[in-house]
């Protein structure tokens, strides 16, 4: 399959636009065309041993959850292992794709998989995110006050397409000369331009016609069950030690490192709304924030 088509399919699964703005996601290394992908290699981090394994398996595309390129590269030399890896991928014509936080945010993604280790009665994102587009397909709400003669001609002359939708006209005031109406439209960004051209032509390019123009962005509803982090409401209380065992079993790990807060123990019982523990476990921002800002007195390998 062509590399661009593979990337398109990956983006359809999790749109890169929902990734955090600080993240570096998508196609990070693209060899010269044509590149047909016959083997894909999935990894958490693209280290040198992982790359050597991928080369032996003769893969064309490495999907690395964490970005192989995060900070800007000023040079590509053999002195740094990350730079060496990128150079070798280019030499071997291996593409690199990173989804990172886009896979965290989507429904059924990384966060939901982690939380599936527990029996929950309710799950919700810590920070919900807005839909990429408005359900109506429009992005702008346009209102303008015009006289009755302009109002009639505007409705007749504006070509209502997929980019412009006429909502209605509301009578505002009555003067000795003419009635005035507030006209409302829904448009796309391109539709705004076409609508303005129609208004200008009907007003003989009189810029005063735009003095009452109001253009507002339409608020996008929140995406369902998607966003950064997860809050899990447990079906029944669990002790911290039980949480640790469930996490170890879910990740198939023999030990994990746990930081216990002052005055707390492994016998601590978690409530039905374990906000703090789930923020700690499942949302990187909170995870990093707590490690840097909160004083822990114990570190234990369990």
Please state the CA-atom Rg, rounded to the nearest Å: 28 Å
Order of helices and strands: HEEHEHEHHEEEHEEHEEEEHEEHHE
For the biggest sheet, the summary is: 4 strands, mixed
Write out the strand line-up for the largest beta sheet, numbering strands in chain order.
Answer: 1-4-3-2
Q: Tell me the strand percentage band.
A: 25-35%
User: Would you report the number of β strands?
Assistant: 16
- Shape summary: flat
Structural class: alpha+beta
User: Helicity level, as a percent range?
Assistant: 25-40%
Distance between the termini: 45 Å
The number of helices is 10
Report on the structure:
- With 302 residues, the chain is an alpha+beta fold.
- Helix content is 32%, strand content 27%.
- It contains ten helices and 16 strands.
- A four-stranded mixed sheet has the order 1-4-3-2. A four-stranded antiparallel sheet has the order 8-9-7-10.
- Helix 9 (275-282) crosses helix 10.
- The chain is flat, with a radius of gyration of 28 Å.
- The two termini are 45 Å apart.
- The relative contact order is 0.12.
- The model is unreliable at 272-302 (pLDDT under 50).
